[in-house]
Every structure is written in C-alpha cells, then in structure tokens.
Amino acid sequence: MLRRNNFLLKPTKRRRKKSGRTVFQKQNFVSKKQELPQQVEEEDVEEGFSLKASAPSHTHGVQPLGNLYFNPSSHNSRNTGLGNLQTLTDELVLEILGFLGGTHLGVLSNVSKSFYVFCNHEPLWRNLVLENCNGGFLYNGSWKSTYVSAYKPSFSVSNLGSSGLKVRDFYSDYLFQSWLCANLEMKPEWLERDNIQRRKGISVDEFVLNFEEPNKPVLLEGCLDNWAALKKWDRDYLIKICGDIQFSVGPVEMKLADYFRYSDQAREERPLYLFDPKFGEKVPGLGSDYEVPVYFDEDLFGVLGNERPDYRWIIIGPAGSGSSFHIDPNSTSAWNAVIKGSKKWVLFPPEVVPPGVHPSPDGAEVACPVSIIEWFMNFYSATRNWEKKPIECVCKAGEVIFVPNGWWHLVINLEDSIAITQNFVSRRNLLNVLDFLKRPNASALVSGTRDRVTLYDKFKNTIEASFPGTIDQLTLEAEQKKAQRKKLSFWESVTDAKAGAFTFSF
Question: Taking every annotated instance into account, which residue ranges of this chain make up the domain JmjC (predicted)?
C-alpha cells in the first residue's frame, strides 16, 4: 500500500489530442505532509507538491515507479501479472482494454492482480459510462460503481470501490499519475503571478482604443454589479429554477441536481465540466438574470439570428475543472464573467504557442497534456524565463475578463464556480473572422454550427446587406495601417543607418 512519505514519481509525459495522451519531462514529486525516505537527500528533490487534506491512498495500492528503486526486493508485480504483455507500455495496455465492455473488463480482472489493477482503472469505466449513458447518469462514488448501478440496479455496489483488493509492490507512473493530478493542491507560485491590466469604470472608447483595437487582454471590475445573477445564482436557486431540464456535460446531458451530485463526490484529474450553449433557450429565466457588459454590445454574428454559431455558455464546475489550452472558435473574441467562485487564467498571444502544446499545421488538432494540473506540474515553470511571459490572473466573482481573438488560454477553477461566457464579433475582428471562415479547410475548423461550408458566404452577404460598405471600409483601413507600419519601419531603418554613419565619421 502506498505510504505518503515514500512516493517519488518519474512522470510519464502524457499528452492528449483533443482527448488523446502523451509522455513528460523527468521531475520528482514529494508530499509536504511527511518526511522523505532516508535514502533520498532533500536537496536532490527538484520540486515538492502537497496533497489535498482529503486525499486518499491510491485505490489499489499503486505506487510511482521511483519507489521501486528503494524496494529491497526490486520486484514489480505489475510485470509478473501481465506475463508476456509486460513489454507493452501502460498506456498501450489501457488503450487495448478500452476496446472492452464492462463484462469483459470484469472477467479479465480475475486473471491476475496486475490485470485487476488495470481493469479497475477509473478512466476506463468513466468512458464506458459516458459512451453508454447518453441520457445522463447518477454518480455513485466511483465510475465503476456508477456503471454497475446503471446496468445492474439490483446489484449491491455499496462496497464495490471501498473494499477493493490492495496489490503490493505494484509500480507504475502512468497509473499513479491520474490519482496524483486529482489530489494535488495548486502550488502558491502557480497563483501568485498577476500581470494582467485591470480597469474599473473606463469608457467604451477607452476599452476599444487600449485593449480591443490592439488585441490585448484586460480584467474589468465593477461592470457586473447590476447583474441579478450575482445575488441569486447559488446552488439551491439554480436547481429550483432548472428543475428537470438537462444540460450539456461533456458528451452527455444531465439534470443540474445530478451534476452537483457528481461534482461533490468525484475526485479525478479531469472533472466533467457543465458547459451548455443553449441554457438561455432551455431556461429563459437564466438569460434574463444577466446582461452583456456595455464593452461587448456589438456582436455582428447577431445578423444571422438563429443561424449564428453557438456563442454563449453557462459554465459550472468544481475545483480542478476547467479548459486546457485552446483558441476560441471561429477567430472570435470573448468575455468571461465569474458569478460564483474564482478562476486562474493563463494566456499567450497568438504568435506564442504555450509549452507542451502542439497544434497541427492546419490548426484542426491540438495535442496537450491530459489534465490542467499536469501542465502546471511539467511546463509552467518553463515560462518564468521566457521573454514573452504569459498574461496571468485570478478572476473572482463579479469580475470579467476580455479574451482577444487568437489568444491561447487555459482556465482552471480554484473552487466551485459558476460563470457566463460569450464569444462575439465586433468591427475590430470582423475581417479576421471572415478570413477564418473562408479558409480551404474551414469545414474542419468552423465550430458551433452545422453549416460549416456556406457560413462564410451567408455571413458576408448578410453583413453587406445590413451594414453596406462596412467590409470595404474596414479592408481599406487595414491596408492603410499595414502600409503605415511598413513606412515607419523603413524610415526607422534609414534613421538608424544615418545615426550609425554619423557616429562612425565622428
């Protein structure tokens, strides 16, 4: 069984391609709650990470591979239990097991202690639940118990997860890491950097001139003070007003009460996020409890009416949930307003790809660490020495952040949180959106709508009909600015050359 004073993890760098996986740089992990093993000098440890106070031991006694080096027997029961399959990586073993159904996983778990551990890996059962319970589910303490309850209601699952077999001398970084990421506290140094510009009470013209036009993030304070949602939106109110309405939670639809039941119990590295684009239509009362801040009133996608791509979402999630690095869809800008809780934001400008993130050349796919905590553990420190450091902040209840188009951003909830976010198209980014919609591979890039092929023509024609001459005027202004930048660049180079020549002759 894992002892908390004895886990040195040499992480397996895991990456996901939308929801796939990867492998990490070497790094050590220790708990601050206990002393290090006698064999390890404290100064040899690169970084220390503390566990949450409620963190349990790993369900099946799995230990990180580093602990094997301090085991006198040097025996890893992972290998003996897999037999000839021991040469496969843990990731590949789990990929293969992912093709099995619940019954076959249950049968295979009886073959050996090693297969017992692999077949009870919670993400396998999570996938089974999400793939087969499209109408929602009632979370029952663990994903395996949830699956069994759904398909065998008469079967008692009260002790299914709590009295599982503990396997001795089983070492695996890959299996251990999900548990570790689910139970790590955010380090203070991950939260202390706050270099975003903050403004309160600025005019719309100031916002456009200093932030929207130059495409820079800003955190706005005080512009949500009149929102009824700030006073009304607690858990009891939302459950009451939403009733049996179902909301989008990952690939499934769930009632709000059922989602809160899940979020209260679940302890996993990637908690499910309630992220629903139709909440205003489903529950009109929610839509009337907030209003768009004045800075974002102009939204040219609105000319499409009901045919516009998805643009607004209610977001609800527990601590640890959030969104890994991405760029907002369709080249839109966005605002995100926190109603309850708080969120940590990390943003990179369009020309800077975050460390550990690997977009495909056409931008259609993004490979990144499996979980947000994993990114902080393995890549956040690399940004300390970057010339172009990320923009960071903690956005609290009553605050709203402006996310300019094209910016990479990551968001993680620091506590149970509720937020509203909307994507929009203003005159400042209209040309960017039109360019995006007419890309050769637009059918693969455009999101939030079934009309991925003709959206460009439909949007452009409707804009020209609603605001005649606007596109031509914006195009002319963009060309003039581009020419001006070139002119300034040339003049500056000439001035520098003259200055150099003057100095030399002197």
Answer: 281-441
